[in-house]
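Exercise: predict the fold of this chain.
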Amino acid sequence: KRKQMAERLSKVEAEVSRTEAAIAESEEALGRYVSAEETQRLSALIEEKRRSLQALESEWAELSEELEATE
């Protein structure tokens, strides 16, 4: 069980990094105006990624606490 939690924690950490990078990339692209449609698409994508990031960070915190408790 502990090993599974540690593996999941590692995967969540990697996903957090990827999501943060995707948000930064999208925010950078938002700075280069292409069209109103593209601005809307990027804004929606950023919001979606931020929600995903919040969920991942919550899962990371829970897993971290559980792992600490099993030490």
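Check your answer against the key: The chain has two helices and no strands.
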